[in-house]
Design brief:
Distance between the termini: 44 Å
Structural class: mainly alpha
Helix content: 55-70%
Number of domains: 1
Shape: globular
Strand content: under 5%
Largest sheet: none
Length: 121
């Protein structure tokens, strides 16, 4: 049975559900090109966060990674000269910006100053 490597090397003790990859998109083979790219994008977002990510931050990073992957697909279509639904690209762009802004707010806020990401208020 294939054991998934740790989601991100920046986590000192990853949550049990993501350690073996079973909670990280169950039923998806992350060894594929797109799976590896998604994992790389999510890891990039996670590496920007100080300390251990909370469950909500992990979820936001997953959402941002998925949206970024979809944006890359649309951008590749444009580069190939294909027509794309402009409304879809605008919606994806706005949603990705919203999620990244939320993540940046988490990263910059004083809440994260405490032990392991759970700061005092």
């Amino acid at each position: 049975m294939f054991e998934m490597p740790i989601l991100t090397p920046t986590l000192t003790t990853p949550p049990k559900r993501t350690r073996a990859g079973r909670g990280f998109l169950p039923g998806v083979d992350l060894r594929t090109t797109r799976g590896r790219r998604l994992r790389a994008i999510v890891n990039a977002y996670l590496s920007d966060l100080p300390g251990e990510p909370s469950a909500s931050e992990l979820s936001l990073c997953m959402q941002a990674g998925t949206l970024a992957l979809q944006m890359e697909d649309l951008q590749a279509m444009v580069a190939r000269g294909e027509s794309i639904p402009t409304a879809s690209m605008a919606r994806l762009s706005k949603e990705l910006a919203r999620v990244v802004t939320t993540l940046n707010g988490e990263r910059r806020s004083g809440r994260r100053a405490g032990r392991g990401g759970r700061g005092e208020r």
